[in-house]
Specification:
The chain is of the alpha+beta class and 183 residues long. It has three helices and seven strands; from the N terminus they run E-E-E-E-E-E-H-E-H-H. The protein has a domain of 123 residues. The longest helix is centred in the middle third of the chain and has 13 residues.
Length: 183
């Protein structure tokens, strides 16, 4: 960040590969810790601070929600975050105090991102964006047929003739006692 001046209008583009942080996951899918995350970022100096825009691509792994087979894919997210300068307004001025009161009323403290000197921490914004983009019910393929409800065999492997039509539904077994006996 040091090469970006504070003058509004200056910008810098950067491409990086960084290791994925820990615990980017939902119940059935995650970004493996330490896996490569490709970042394409643009840093723009604006009056309030630094505006970061760009994209991040990460590998995801997990289990298929239908057949419990392995899932391996990628997720690409867009980033747009404003990092504010800590000392952008003179302390004690009426304008600064009013601005601070308005910011306190309209945003939560964890929503405001602050520059630490000339450095910014992109991980919290990246984490929020990636976790929201992870699929809640990942699929190994779009047309995954799932598992057989009777025997649990993956239907993709069972073949077209797989079935259990000759077996009575166990939910109706009690009614067989009421049926008159032939003979």
């Amino acid at each position: 960040m040091r090469s970006l001046s504070r003058q509004a209008g200056s910008s810098r583009t950067e491409t990086r590969v960084a290791p994925a942080p820990t615990d980017l996951r939902l119940e059935m899918v995650s970004v493996p810790e330490g896996s490569d995350v490709e970042l394409l970022l643009k840093f723009d100096a604006v009056t309030e601070g630094v505006l970061v825009t760009g994209s991040a691509t990460a590998v995801i792994t997990g289990e298929c929600a239908r057949c419990l087979g392995p899932v391996a894919s990628t997720v690409t997210v867009s980033l747009l975050e404003l990092y504010q300068y800590q000392d952008d307004r003179p302390r004690g001025s009426k304008r600064q105090d009013n601005w601070q009161e308005e910011a306190d009323e309209s945003t939560d403290a964890d929503e405001v991102r602050i520059l630490n000197g000339d450095l910014l921490d992109l991980e919290p914004a990246f984490r929020d964006t990636v976790v929201l983009a992870l699929p809640i019910a990942p699929l190994c393929r779009d047309d995954c047929p799932g598992l057989c409800v009777t025997c649990g065999v993956p239907l993709a492997e069972a073949g077209p003739g797989h079935g259990h039509e000759d077996q009575p539904d166990p939910r109706w077994a009690g009614l067989e006692k009421l049926q008159p006996k032939e003979g």
